[in-house]
């Protein structure tokens, strides 16, 4: 799934805030 891909890419970041922003951007672009 797309989320799984994003998770793997964001795994490097320990910053949860950054991760949430990334999810918002990716999902927003997907829609």
TrEMBL record:
Domain Transposase IS204/IS1001/IS1096/IS1165 DDE span(s) in chain numbering: 1-23
Superkingdom of the organism of origin: Bacteria
Protein name as catalogued: Transposase
Origin species: Alkalicoccus luteus
Upper classification of the organism: Bacteria, Bacillati, Bacillota, Bacilli, Bacillales
